[in-house]
Write a structure and sequence with these properties.
With 255 residues, this protein is of the alpha/beta class. It has a single domain, classed as 3-Layer(aba) Sandwich (Rossmann fold), CATH 3.40.50. 37% of the residues lie in helices and 20% in strands. The chain has 11 helices and 7 strands. The chain has a 7-stranded mixed sheet. Helix 3 crosses helix 4 and helix 10 runs antiparallel to helix 11. The longest helix has 14 residues.
Length: 255
């Protein structure tokens, strides 16, 4: 896994910046139509998406949490007084505190199935009845856009998708949430070029190909043989799922 303490300084630049944040915030808000009150953004990172959500929906009082100190510092500069350091598996808030909870690009980082279950359970716990939880799913699959880069990387070792949509849905249902919609958004500015993909390989972006290993360099050599080394291929498209905690007036599931 990448060291997000080191990544914080250039995180936004390498991941589409404000253009991507705009697309992400718009898609998330589209799954929270009419939501007001308090919103918690879990693993808010640099706060670049969190700030856009807050600006677009003035009726929401937004709180961000992240575990990495450097990310918390950057997010706090964007949202003064609204960001705290916390672990997604043990959120420091009472039950039913928030009207909406989001976790964008978090679940794919949780290698341990118990951590995944704990994070989803915590997001559900702090959600009030009638509230909405929105999260990204299937993050790795978003980058497979059918390009020549994907053809080269198809044979790489990879771990199972811990954030597969079906897995996330099963955990959410287990803790009392109900599916409430889905959406997607374009990762504007994140289309890979062969040269940028080689750089990502060598900095540990692909978790099953550690920097410096012979296999990593084999894939780097194949990528270096592709044409148009600096031409970005199509942008990824990220998937979202929304879940709702039933309120007192909701009929029982299946009723």
């Amino acid at each position: 896994m990448l060291d997000y303490e080191k990544e914080a300084g250039h995180y936004d630049t390498l991941r589409g910046g404000e253009a991507r944040a705009h697309e992400a915030a718009r898609a998330v808000l589209g799954l929270m139509a009419g939501t007001s009150g308090r919103l918690l953004d879990v693993a808010c990172g640099t706060g670049i998406v969190t700030r856009r959500i807050a600006a677009a929906r003035p009726g929401l009082r937004v709180t961000g949490v992240d575990l990495t100190p450097a990310m918390v510092r950057r997010a706090s500069a964007r949202l003064p007084g609204a960001v705290v350091r916390a672990d997604s598996r043990r959120l420091p808030f009472p039950d039913g505190t928030f009207d909406a909870v989001t976790s964008i690009w978090l679940l794919h980082l949780l290698d341990d199935p118990e951590d995944l279950r704990a994070a989803i359970a915590e997001c559900a716990r702090v959600l009030r009845p009638g509230g909405v939880y929105v999260t990204t799913v299937d993050k790795a699959a978003a980058h497979n856009v059918g390009s020549d880069i994907d053809t080269v990387l198809a044979a790489r070792p990879r771990r199972p998708a811990v954030d597969a949509a079906d897995t996330v849905t099963a955990h959410a249902v287990r803790v009392g949430l109900r599916p409430a919609g889905q959406g997607s958004f374009r990762g504007t500015g994140q289309g890979r070029s062969p040269r940028s993909t080689i750089a990502d390989l060598r900095r540990g972006w692909f978790t099953q190909l550690p920097p410096g290993e012979p296999r990593t360099e084999e894939f780097a050599a194949r990528l270096a043989a592709l044409p148009d080394q600096d031409r970005p291929r199509p942008d990824p498209r990220f998937s979202l799922r929304a879940f709702r905690r039933p309120g007192p007036t909701d009929a029982p599931a299946g009723g």
